[in-house]
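REVIEWER CHECKLIST
Item 1: Sequence provided? yes
Item 2: Single chain? yes
Item 3: Sequence as submitted:
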Amino acid sequence: MRVPDDCAGVAAVCSACFPDWPISADEMAADEARRPPERLHRALVALEGDTVAGFGFVQEPDVAARKGRLRMRVLVAPERRRSGVGSALYDALCEIGNEAGATEFVTEAQAADEGAAPFLTGRGFVEYHRRVESRLSLADVDPTAIGRAIDAHVDAFFASGARIATFRQLRQVHADAARRLYDLDATLWVDVPFGLSGALPTYDQYVATEIDHPDFMPAATFIALDGDRWIGISALVRHPGFLLCSMTGVVRDWRSRGLARWLKLHALRHALECGAAEIRTFNDSINPAILALNASFGFRVTAVQLRYRKELR
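Item 4: Structure as written out by the authors:
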C-alpha cells in the first residue's frame, strides 16, 4: 500500500465493506501516519488495472499483544469477491507473517457477512469470541429524565465523597493527567473479557493513538474520582454522524454501586447537549453486566462481530 496514493482506493473498499462505518482517504492517510513505527504493520492492496479491488494487512495487535501473535484482515470490494482476490491477499499476508515469526493469526468478521466464515474456517481459523455492537438513538432519550437521574446519583454518592469530572478539567490541575488516564485504562482492560490476554500499548503509543487523536474528546471523557484516585471512566469519541462510547468501566472495589450508570448518564447528557444523533458502542458477548446497563438506557443490538484465531504449527 502506497500512502497517500492508494488511500482513496483503500477507503472506498473499506467503506463498501462497512457502509455504516465510512472512512475517507484523508482519514485513512492520517491513521497510517499515526501508527507507531516500532510495531509491525504491513498493508497490501490488490489492483485490477488502476483500481483497488482489495486491501489487507498484518500487524501486531493494539491490545492483547504477545510474541508471535499477529492480527490479519482481508477486505475485498463486494463486486470483486469470489474472483481470487481475497485468496491472493491472504496468501501474501501469510508469507509476511511467517517471515515475521508468527505463531498465531487472529482476525474478525461480521456475523452478517455470509462469505466470511467459510473463507476463514476453510483456512483453519476457529471462532473464539464474539463482540456485540449496540446503538442508541438520542431522539428516544428524554433529557429531563437524564438530568433527574444524575441528580439522584449525586445525592446517593454524596456521603462516599465520589465525584465526576471531565478529562478536560482534570488536565488543568494535573500535569500527569495523560499518565493517569493511561493507568486507569490499563487497570480496567485487565478485566475486560476480550477473549484473549496479552500486553497493552505502551504509554507513548497510547498517547499517540488515543489522546492525540483528533477524534478524542477531553470534555466527553468522564472520570470518576475517589479523592485523588481515578476509579472509573465513560468516554465518547467523535465520528461523522454519531459518537462512539469507547470505554465504560469501574475499578473492582467500586463496582456494583451504580458508579458505571452515573458515568454513563454524564456521557448521555453530553451527547444530547452537543446535538449528536446516535451513540454506538461495542461490548463482549460474555459481559452481561454492561450489556444490561446499555439495554436499560435503550441501546439496541445491531450487529455481532465474530473473532477468529489460527494457531500455526
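Item 5: Key structural point noted by reviewer: The radius of gyration is 21 Å.
Item 6: Recommendation: ____
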